[in-house]
Amino acid sequence: MERMMGLINLEHEHHVFNELTYFRNNASLPFAGRYRLIDFALSNMTNSGIEEVAVFVRNKYRSLLDHLGTGDSWDLDRRHGGLFILPPDWNDPTDRSLGDLSFFHNNRDYFYRGKANHVLVSGSQFIANTDYKDAFKRHLIHDADVTVIYTDVDTIGPEHQAYYRVETDQDGWVTQMTNDHRNPNVFTGVYIIKKELLLDIVDYCIAYNYDNLFMNGIKERLQELKVYSYRFEGYHAFINTTESYYRENMKLLQEQNFLRLFQKPFIRTKVSSNPPVKYQAQAVVNNSIIANGCIINGDVENSILFRGVEVSEHSQIRNSIIMQRCKIEEDVYLENVILDKDVHVKSGQRIIGTKEKPYIVAKRQVV
Amino acid sequence: MKECLGMLLAGGEGKRLGPLTSENAKPAVPFGGKYRIIDFTLSNCANSSIPTLGVLTQYSPIMLNRHIGTGKPWDMDRRDGGVTTLSPAIGKHGGDWYSGTADAIYQNIHFIDQYNPKYVLVISGDHIYQMNYQSILRQHKETAADATISVIEVPWDEASRFGILNTEDGLRIYEFDEKPAEPKNNLASMGIYMFTWSTLRKYLIEDAENKNSSHDFGKDIIPAMLEDNKPLFGYQFDGYWKDVGTIRSYWEATMDLLDENSGSPISVAREDMSKQIYTNEANLPPHFIGTSGTVINSLINSGCFIYGHILNSVIFQKVLVKKNAYINESILHPGVCVGEDVHLERVIVMENTEIADGVRIHALEEEEPIVINQENLSEYVAVREEIV
């Protein structure tokens, strides 16, 4: 039977979120009240029927390891298959591999052992709630070597710049992948590839001293390979700048967006044991997303509160993202602010950012 | 060998909870916005390092069995010990339903014996409280008791509703008085027993052979031990404890959760990491409060959409409350959908009930709170309309 195995490759994702990624990598950036970016790629894989997923991660992975655990939140705690977190560790003196090729080269066993004959590769920065079953079906029907998944974006923004644009012929075969910023067909970073071919490309790239499997091994060899395209339609976000991070969070406060991203099957994340949210006597909450464990006695509008946030009386929070376990004392005013985890805002503070440049407070600060 | 093994009685029907237990065992009734009643005792065991536990089920156990599963939320998915659900079963010599609390333990003597414990803790899964069972075990060892029974002081005028323990100095028990007309003491049994296993084992076997016995701990085992002058002691507990055996007390215990000064478990758990409450979590998105929604003095769980007005209420997961709905002093169980302009006051709405636009249901203050489900909803709405 034709099957896919999963690979989340974080090697070429740059840590561009300043304060927010000092101590964590992009994949474990908190999002939408209780998720981490990687939850979307992981859930989409398991919802596609994938039973084994590897994660290539090089550094700043403490919070990622803590988050993923045994993979049980995604039903990936399996006797066969399951979750493989593969940091770079090897001692082969003859190894000449560079870039993400060193991950592929040194973890060939993962691919050999898996029963699947196709690999679904994804990063963590393309956010959607979908499965790739239909894309896989088309991949098989067309007997493609590679199927790249792209989406047609309405407004091209800076967050799309890092992604290739897809050009195809009438039948959907990819003719070019470019950096043409006017082309709205943006590659999502998600692709399906035949496993045998993937391993051949690894050899090819290493033989020619290349350091980027997709760029050198696929994008530059489109004429030799049968690369098909699949257009993803549905709610999505690309998150790779602070601005896009803030904007995409805020977009979820429009109910129809929230509903499109959080429909069944739900995105799964690590569960915690927080009690339900306690709204106290002076709570005024409007158009907001609130995660469990919060205690609210202030005024919250157009904001996202992660788990375990405390908001004291006479405090106002507007258009802000408040991460896990922040404590906001009385008479505080926050507008267009991102507070990372465990920030403590003392009584009487006023912090105001702009919509374009939200004010970011790093983890565990007291202000 | 395990020093102390827990046996949790979860087979009760809970008749007085009416429709709440018509298809569900009492310990599995939803409570506190995201939990089930049994979570409080299971979490006590987890927080008291009692990782080997038998859960005795009998009445409508499907939901309960599924909820407990391998015991993972309570760290009871262990290779050695962990949680085992014990339903009545037949064996070589036949078998029968559990005919009383003591009989339920008697029928599982072989289960307890495989762990060869020194002490056995017998608790029930239908009370809301937080206790570290290590303290009762410590006192049990210090006093070299054969049984230690946890007691709580109740108001004198209510003492005749409880099983009262009459004690001497040092809380040594000389008499057990079940619902005494004229109470001599105000220390009520909480149904939490620590036994020395070798002694209990002997009494269970004797009791099983006694055809006139009702096979109940309070009525038979404890009196038999007292008769023989065995050392039995009370363990005084002074925290929050509530029996949620009736609709009224279920509703009151829920309202206690909204009062931060009541000492009820959820506010304690927020402050104290060693008193967390664990449950089988649904993996749902955070809840969404729309522009038309207001929430005051309430608890709301994940996966909800709130566009109406919520006051003094507890809302479980996946509830939808539409515009201009007004919910006061009510409890909405998982998956409830409340239409526009609905008014609910002192109402408990059971799982997945859909309430159409404009419905108004109020229980008066002196009335028992009204329990609504999809079956009785239509008749309820009709009856109320006739009165109006």
Describe this structure in words.
The complex is a heterodimer of chains A (367) and B (388). Chain A is built from nine helices and 28 strands. Chain A is an alpha/beta fold and 367 residues long. Chain A has two domains: 4-262, Spore Coat Polysaccharide Biosynthesis Protein SpsA, Chain A (Alpha-Beta Complex), CATH 3.90.550; 278-361, Hexapeptide repeat proteins (UDP N-Acetylglucosamine Acyltransferase, domain 1). Chain A has a seven-stranded mixed beta sheet. The longest helix of chain A is centred in the middle third of the chain and has 13 residues, at 195-207. Chain B has a seven-stranded mixed beta sheet, sandwiched between helices. Chain B is globular. The model of chain B has no long low-confidence stretch (mean pLDDT 93). The interface between A and B is large, with 36 and 37 residues. β14 (277-279) of chain A pairs antiparallel with β16 (298-300) of chain B.
Structural class of chain B: alpha/beta
Taken from the alpha-carbon principal axes, the silhouette of chain A is elongated
Give me the count of strands of chain B: 28
Count of structural domains of chain A: 2
Helix run count of chain B: 10
The helix content of chain B, as a percent range, equals 10-25%
CATH-defined architecture of the largest domain in chain A:
Alpha-Beta Complex
The shape of chain B, in one word, is globular
Beta fraction of chain B? 25-35%
Report the sheet-strand fraction of chain A: 25-35%
Which sequence of strands runs across the widest sheet of chain B? 5-4-1-6-11-8-12
Widest beta sheet: strand line-up of chain A = 5-4-1-6-11-8-12
Helix content of chain A: 10-25%
Continuous helix count of chain A: 9
Radius of gyration of chain A: 22 Å
- Straight-line N-to-C gap of chain A: 58 Å
Class of secondary structure makeup of chain A: alpha/beta
Low-confidence sequence ranges of chain A: none
